[in-house]
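STRUCTURE:
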């Protein structure tokens, strides 16, 4: 007997005007009008995170249809990468053009979840633009890479409010992608792809020829 084909679901793709209309096209800074560019994006089932050229993170909650804004204190600089994570708490990591990295622990209305917005800063190890971020599934580890080839590991203790960071790897070319699972960090650079085993601190290159 022939198997019954699963039904085909048609979806329409259109601009997210409800999201875009909540982000200003320009801001006023003194006597200057500054155009706001959207520079980074990440999504999951709960949130849409959008980074901007003015250093503002726009976080849209898909369940409540609400937009919230988060920023870095101090100078206004472009956000270059954002990475969301939903585990016991909702987390979003943000990287900037100067190498600043921050983690926001979001407020949740669910019982037993975080009730106060908290921010963790990765100590100033990066000195150049952040190009990649990767979470561990439980939110206790964050890896960040920059365009000078540095990869930083940050251990987060959300209960104690502690973030300890250290340089774990340095490549001769820009980091373009990071992914972490089961104590193995996948690293892609402009020149090569490798597996970094975090327990042994050893490197296994994927392939033999450098990228052209």
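SEQUENCE:
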């Amino acid at each position: 007997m022939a198997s019954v084909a699963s039904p085909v679901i048609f979806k329409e793709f259109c601009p997210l005007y409800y999201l875009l209309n909540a982000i200003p096209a320009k801001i006023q800074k003194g006597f200057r009008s500054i155009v706001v560019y959207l520079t980074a994006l990440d999504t999951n089932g709960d949130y849409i995170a959008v980074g901007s050229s003015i250093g503002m993170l726009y976080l849209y909650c898909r369940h409540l249809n609400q937009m919230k804004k988060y920023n870095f204190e101090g100078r206004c600089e472009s956000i270059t990468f954002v990475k969301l994570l939903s585990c016991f708490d909702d987390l979003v990591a943000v990287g900037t053009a100067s190498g600043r990295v921050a983690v926001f622990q979001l407020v949740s209305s669910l019982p037993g979840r975080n009730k106060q917005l908290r921010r963790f800063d990765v100590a100033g190890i990066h000195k150049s633009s952040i190009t990649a971020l990767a979470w561990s599934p439980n939110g206790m580890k964050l890896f960040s890479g920059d365009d000078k080839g540095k990869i930083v590991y940050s251990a987060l203790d959300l209960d104690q409010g502690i973030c300890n960071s250290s340089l774990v790897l340095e490549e001769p070319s820009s980091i373009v992608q990071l992914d972490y699972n089961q104590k193995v960090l996948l690293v892609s650079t402009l020149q090569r792809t490798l597996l970094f085993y975090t327990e042994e601190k050893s490197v296994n290159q994927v392939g033999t020829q450098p990228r052209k």
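REMARK: The mean pLDDT is 89.
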